[in-house]
């Protein structure tokens, strides 16, 4: 009986989290969100060649990771690490700001998960993305 009740609660929690994301306005825009998006957009020019070379990939948690440091000359690695860190900081801020703008800061994790899926789905062919089984080339 306890296992059945636990299973029902678990299924209910998973369903509720999907409803939360469905109820969230992921396109909401505030001055803070616009500033974050602008920062990310201007940084994309620095990241794009690294996505294409496979040095950088999209993670399954909505972030960016240096996937293959050897694809980048040694002299450029510190700079790339800085760009990736700045991108991930902006992504974290973006998820938080969208949740806050929706009036539900507690939705941040679900919003991040939704963006992770969207970004992987929209990744260009040839980019590396992280799935449950590890890195794959799209």
Account of the 3D structure:
- There is one protein chain.
- The protein has 138 residues and is an alpha+beta fold.
- It contains 4 helices and 4 strands, in the order ααββααββ.
- It has helices at residues 2-23, 31-53, 74-101, 108-122; strands at residues 56-58, 64-66, 128-131, 134-137.
- A 4-stranded mixed sheet has the order 2-1-3-4.
- A hairpin with a 2-residue loop joins β3 (128-131) and β4.
- α3 (74-101) crosses α4 (108-122).
- The radius of gyration is 17 Å and the shape is globular.
Shape: globular
Please outline the major beta sheet.
4 strands, mixed
The counted number of beta strands is: 4
Radius of gyration: 17 Å
What is the helix content?
Answer: 55-70%
Kindly report the average pLDDT value: 88
Distance between the termini: 44 Å
* Order of helix and strand elements from N to C terminus: HHEEHHEE
Q: Find the structural class using helix and strand composition.
A: alpha+beta
Strand order within the widest beta sheet: 2-1-3-4
Q: Strand percentage, roughly?
A: 5-15%
**Low-confidence parts, pLDDT < 50 over ≥5 residues?**
1-21
Assembly context of the chains: single chain
Tally of contiguous helical segments? 4
Structural topology:
Elements: H1 2-23, H2 31-53, E1 56-58, E2 64-66, H3 74-101, H4 108-122, E3 128-131, E4 134-137
Parallel strand pairs: 1-3
Antiparallel strand pairs: 1-2, 3-4
């Amino acid at each position: 009986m306890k296992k059945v009740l636990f299973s029902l609660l678990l299924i209910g929690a998973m369903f509720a989290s999907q409803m939360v994301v469905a109820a969230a306005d992921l396109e909401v825009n505030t001055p803070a969100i616009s500033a974050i998006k602008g920062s990310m957009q201007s940084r994309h020019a620095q990241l794009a060649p690294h996505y294409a070379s496979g040095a950088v990939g999209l993670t399954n948690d909505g972030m960016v990771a240096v996937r293959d440091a050897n694809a980048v000359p040694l002299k450029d690695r510190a700079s790339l690490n800085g760009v990736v860190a700045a991108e991930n900081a902006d992504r974290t801020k973006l998820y938080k700001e969208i949740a806050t703008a929706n009036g539900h800061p507690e939705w941040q994790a679900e919003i991040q998960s939704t963006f992770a899926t969207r970004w992987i789905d929209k990744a260009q062919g040839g980019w590396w993305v992280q799935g449950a089984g590890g890195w794959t080339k799209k």
